[in-house]
Amino acid sequence: MDNLSANTNTSNNGKQLFEIAWEFCNQVGGIYSVLKSKANLMVKEFADQYCGIGPYLDSKAESEFEHLDLSVLGNNNPLAITVKNLRDRGFQIKFGRWSVVGHPLTILLPPWDVYSNLSSIKYFMWKDHNIECDSCYDPIIDQTIAFGEMVKIFLLEYANVCKIFDSNIQTIAHFHEWMGASAIPSLRLNNIPITIIFTTHATSLGRYVSLAGHDLYGNLANIDWEIEAKNFNILSQVKIERAAAHGAHIFTTVSDVTASECKYLLGRVPDVILPNGLNVERFVAIHELQNLHKENKNKIHEFTVGHFFSNYSFELDKTLYFFTSGRFEFRNKGFDITLDALARLNQMLKNTPSLSDITVVMFIITKRPFYTINPLLFHQRAMTEKLRVACDEITKELQEKLFFHVASFQNWETPNLNKLIDEYHWLKLKKVMQAWKKNDLPLIVTHTLQNQNDEVLASIRANNLFNYREDRVKIVYQPDFVSPVNPLNQSDYNQFVRGCNLGIFPSYYEPWGLTPVECLALGTPSVTSNLSGFGEYVLKNIGGPEKKGLYVLDRKKGNYIEESISLAQTLFTFCQQSRRERISQRNRLESLSVDFDWSKMINNYLKVYASVFNQE
User: CA–CA distance from 48 to each of 68, 69, 150, 541 (Å)?
Assistant: First the structure.
């Protein structure tokens, strides 16, 4: 394939950029999306002078990795020689390209190659850097420090090869997150002639403190990082993270919010902020955006009919679809305040006669352990399909009979349509309707959860959000992600987001926040918070964000009740918008999305690299 041949960019000769992360060809969380989405622009800028380095953990990597022969790099290439030398020493290094847009050169290092020396590696981590890794068995710690050792071996060999060839190559090693950065302290100890950049996408301790329900931001200056790390049994990873931050020549993070954590929890203020971007697919015609919203909203309508209408019905034309999604962190992701605010919104809509015909269907999309999809949903879907078939049969019969009746009719009297449909089809439709209709309440949870007392369910019960007929806010809790292979959705996540009216992500702990950015790119308004990196960025860089469909909830005061009331008022105000106002808002939001595209955000990275490469 042509796009897998060696790329050259003469403007970058004499430069080499390695980007090292646990999530190269290894999807774990959001860093994978960051690396994947910006890969094409990195290759356009640096061609084959850009190379990703990740772990080779198992054969799953093969599904997104294409092996290459070292000859594609040409003769006397330091990178090719380094890989060959290490293979000759017995290391099973994989060389090839990541099968994503841009096809960047990628090297995968198997941690298992140094497992026989793990005790010695841990000893020197303690002796040289005061990082204890033997206090308890933790397979993740073992894997990450073994991967770090492989990265150290690779970069030391690369530096030696460059020295032998008397090369003047300027080299950057850009590490992401603590799981990929345990090599940094040892590389600095060896005084390697490579500029080291470290980006933390969150702080380990900050996430744990927040998850525990503590007031992280109100007490940052008073937190004793070592005591708290011991309390949460994460001392090893926190020490690795701190050593990486202090050992890097350039220390960066993704937002001002996380920078404040770094100051107190890692003991170093980041030198640069590198906000995350997204690949935004923009449309030439504005009407295309609205058509896609309508098309995908109709798919959600079909789900709504099957899920609710066998119990009771409401006006689809007056129904708004809200959703929240993401990793299950009940407090950090703002699931708690969202449900409390929805309960308030439910009462506000009930008490407002002018909005009595408005219904909000709220989807809570996350990943939780479950046994299976609730069989009742399959029964409801089957009965809904039978109802559709019965109606289609009547429509087809009526269409044919009406045509022949009108064509042969002698006067202009309107025909009696009831007489054109035979009794058999009427009776069949009546039987299907009787079997379809139920008198109980619509299901709240789509799956049979392993834990029937999880925090979302407990909050739903506490807020009395049981999908009563009179409720204006209905809840659908789906403990599995939206995907085309999920029989409940049968659409991908982007299509689902396009069909919704509002995303709700009032996070308490969110270093950046990908979900509201995805909403932005897809033209769907969203709520975020000023405790998320994205929300803080919006407030500093976007004028009048509410008019453009970006609502930023103030959560810095730390008064949960006031924040819940404020969020409910924001949702209530959104419900009061006319269809024309929502259309106009989506248009303004779509035009704003280009500001968050990687084509613009990548400049933050390029400036940092240029500051290194342009040095004398």
Answer: 13, 14, 22, 34
Q: What is the pLDDT of residues 366-410, one digit of tens each?
A: 999 999 999 988 888 888 888 888 888 878 877 777 777 777 766
Residues spanned by the domain of 486: 286-374+443-594
Q: For tokens 């490469």, what's the residue?
A: 613
Q: Examine the fold and report which residue of 436, 461, 485 is the final residue of a domain before the chain moves on.
A: 436
Quick one: which of 23, 596, 587 has its CA closest to 290? 587
Rounded to the nearest 5 percent, the helix, strand and coil shares of the chain are 55, 15, 35
430/516 same-domain check: no
User: Are 154 and 290 contained in the same domain?
Assistant: no
Q: Which amino acid belongs to residue 55?
A: P
pLDDT surpassing 70 at residue 287: no
CA-to-CA distance for 455 and 450, rounded, in angstroms?
Answer: 13
**CATH number for the domain including 317?**
3.40.50.2000
Question: Partners of 105 in the beta sheet?
Answer: 51, 97
pTM over 0.85: yes
Q: According to the model, what pLDDT value does residue 404 have?
A: 74
Q: Which residues contact 59 (CB under 8 A, 6 or more apart)?
A: none
Within 13 Å and on the Cβ side, how many CA atoms surround 94? 24
Structure tokens at 161: 């090869």
Question: Any residues with CB less than 8 A from the CB of 229 and at least 6 apart, and which?
Answer: 204, 205, 235, 238, 239
State the DSSP H helix or E strand holding residue 109, giving kind and residue range, or none if neither: strand 105-109
Indicate whether 131 pLDDT > 60.
yes
User: Which residues sit opposite 449 in a β-bridge?
Assistant: 370
Number of H helices, E strands in the chain: 20, 17
* Co-location of 239 and 345 in the same domain: no
pLDDT at 282: 55
pLDDT at 454: 93
